[in-house]
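Please think about what follows:
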Amino acid sequence: MTATATSARSDLSELGRSETALRTFLHGLPGVDQVGAEQRAAQLGTRSIKTTAKAQAIDLAIRMVDLTTLEGADTPGKVRALAAKALRPDPADPSCPHVGAVCVYPAMVPYVAEVLRGSAVHLASVATSFPSGQAPLAIKLADTRAAVEAGADEVDMVINRGAFLAGRYREVYDEIVATKQACGDAHLKVILETGELATYDNVRRASWLAMLAGGDFIKTSTGKVPVAATLPVTLVMLEAVRDFRVATGRQVGVKPAGGIKTTKDAIKYLVMVNETVGPDWLDPDWFRFGASSLLNDLLMQRTKLTTGVYAGPDYFTLD
């Protein structure tokens, strides 16, 4: 890290001590050109890749999937089966890579941990009163600690959108800092719930707020509201992590989640990552897809490329 970056990081770390300083900084960020962002995202979405490059992109996308189930009807048996699929997505093809992580509710973490123990697949748990974020801080922190103690090495927290939209930035900042501390060695993904933030400017501000408070990843959505991940929103978040690394020397990951269902969708996001932030982020350590149905489509397309035969959707287990 350069001396300039070290100085900038030190200066930015002081922002959280003052509501006024935090507000001044966040509202001083350059505004997002809505038309430009949407046109850029649409343009990148038209790119196509073929043959060998497509095969490589599919395998990379599989490695980036956070295979997710977040339903009230989740059972130990269901999440154990999901964890087994994460390890061997295509049992008929041992060359198929494993996914990045399995993401479940805190109560399901111990059952997933039984299956994943000793593997390279991460265990992620949502926490902090997911998906609303509307609970006292003590409960949110207890939720986080319980997930980590049960075996989660990644925590997906959700910010208090009500506080953010009301301009109580210090409150949101302090909650992220406290949650990061409660995570211990586990990585913290901060869910912005971009579908409720209303503007791209708010997405940019929330992204910076999450990074300033120590988030290891910024994530679009819980998947529990009508508007989840979109290409323009993800573009704004990618630009934020790029600019944050320039300013501080610290790299932060990005996770679009919700509504990404096809290989075509996933490749659009990978093209956007490459064109916006470069190859440093084309790695599961720095970019993930929060998805449940995406994996099966990736597997079907992979089978078609490797065998020439298109496997139907019932060929792979449903999640």
In short: The chain has one domain: 3-307. The mean pLDDT is 92. The first strand starts at residue 65 and ends at 68. The chain has 13 helices and eight strands.
